[in-house]
């Protein structure tokens, strides 16, 4: 057996062990039920429960149906990694409903040192890419949100005006727990509350925001090549980002 075959066998064994550790599928039917202005996901007629034991009840039928699709798609085992919408809904119900102010404050922690405000010192090509992807969002933040922001070179801290941060915080306060859960995920994955807000307000598409968040990384990859492990990690992060963007779109239906 050559090295390649041994590697394939090792990967297959690891994957088999990982699958065996997952819970077995215990249900046959998945349904959505209207519940007084919200919608619940049912398995064999029983409500799905969050890790905190609350019913998995979401703001509308569109989001519930998208979550139900994840449960339908499970095979013999239930793999949480393939259920990002369910994961996000669980977070909204167990961790954000009733404490939205704390989540807004956490997002504001990113906004105060937003990725888009910190520019490289060089080279010129990278600076041009940052300006291309980031300047329109900075301009939108100033004009549409009434929140002009200071820019900095390198990692030197650029303090932002209290009035600008207050405007951004006011906008975040307009979202419900499920939208905030999505915004929190997108902000954490990109390092930018501005990109998350731009997607929520339809100033950017999810693809545009994702590209903007990875200008530096893509620049390095174009010159030095892409690491396979880094690429895999990025694909996992992109799945979660897309689920958050989809949640934003669905709660806005």
Overview of this structure, please?
The protein is built from 11 helices and 6 strands. It folds into 2 domains: 77 residues, 2-Layer Sandwich (ATP12-like); 152 residues, ATP12 ATPase (ATP12-like fold), CATH 1.10.3580.10. It has 253 residues and is an alpha+beta fold. 60% of the residues lie in helices and 8% in strands. The strands form 2 sheets. Strands 1, 2, 3 and 4 form a 4-stranded antiparallel sheet that branches. A two-stranded parallel ribbon has the order 5-6. It is globular and about 60 Å long. Helix 7 crosses helix 8.
| Number of domain modules | 2
Tally the helices: what do you get? 11
Give me the count of strands. Answer: 6
CATH superfamily of the largest domain: ATP12 ATPase
Rg calc: 21 Å
Mean pLDDT: 91
CATH class of the largest domain: Mainly Alpha
Low-confidence blocks of residues: 10-14
Helix fraction, binned, reads 55-70%
CATH topology of the largest domain, which one?
ATP12-like fold
Shape: globular
Helix-and-strand structural type? alpha+beta
Brief digest:
With 253 residues, the protein is an alpha+beta fold. It has helices at residues 3-20, 61-72, 84-96, 100-111, 124-144, 162-172, 177-190, 193-200, 206-213, 215-224, 228-251, and strands spanning 30-35, 38-43, 46-47, 57-58, 118-119, 152-153. Helix 8 runs antiparallel to helix 9.
Features:
single chain, 253 residues, alpha+beta, ATP12-like, ATP12-like fold, 2 domains, four-stranded antiparallel sheet, 11 helices
Strand and helix layout:
Blueprint lengths: L2 H18 L9 E6 L2 E6 L2 E2 L9 E2 L2 H12 L11 H13 L3 H12 L6 E2 L4 H21 L7 E2 L8 H11 L4 H14 L2 H8 L5 H8 L1 H10 L3 H24 L2
Parallel strand pairs: 5-6
Antiparallel strand pairs: 1-2, 2-3, 2-4
Helix pairs in contact: 3-7, 4-6, 4-7, 7-8, 7-11, 8-9
């Amino acid at each position: 057996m050559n090295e390649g075959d041994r590697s394939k066998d090792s990967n297959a064994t690891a994957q088999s062990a990982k699958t065996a550790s997952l819970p077995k599928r215990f249900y046959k039917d998945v349904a959505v039920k209207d519940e007084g202005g919200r919608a619940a996901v049912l398995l064999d007629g029983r409500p799905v429960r969050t890790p905190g034991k609350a019913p998995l009840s979401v703001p509308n039928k569109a989001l519930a149906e998208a979550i139900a699709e994840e449960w339908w798609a499970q095979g013999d085992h239930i793999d949480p990694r393939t259920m990002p919408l369910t994961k996000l809904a669980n977070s909204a119900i167990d961790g954000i409903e009733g404490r939205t102010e704390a989540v807004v404050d956490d997002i504001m922690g990113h906004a105060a040192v937003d990725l888009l405000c910190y520019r490289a010192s060089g080279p010129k090509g990278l600076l041009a890419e940052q300006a291309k992807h980031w300047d329109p969002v900075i301009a939108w933040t100033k004009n549409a949100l009434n929140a002009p922001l200071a820019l900095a070179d390198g990692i030197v801290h650029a303090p932002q005006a209290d009035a600008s941060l207050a405007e951004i915080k006011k906008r975040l306060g307009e979202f419900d727990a499920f939208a905030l859960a999505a915004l929190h995920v997108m902000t954490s994955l990109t390092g930018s509350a501005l990109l998350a807000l731009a997607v929520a307000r339809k100033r950017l598409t999810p693809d545009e925001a994702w590209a903007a968040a990875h200008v530096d990384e893509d620049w390095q990859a174009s010159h030095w090549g892409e690491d396979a492990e880094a690429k895999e990690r990025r694909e996992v992060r992109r799945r979660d980002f897309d689920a958050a963007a989809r949640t934003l779109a669905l709660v806005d239906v």
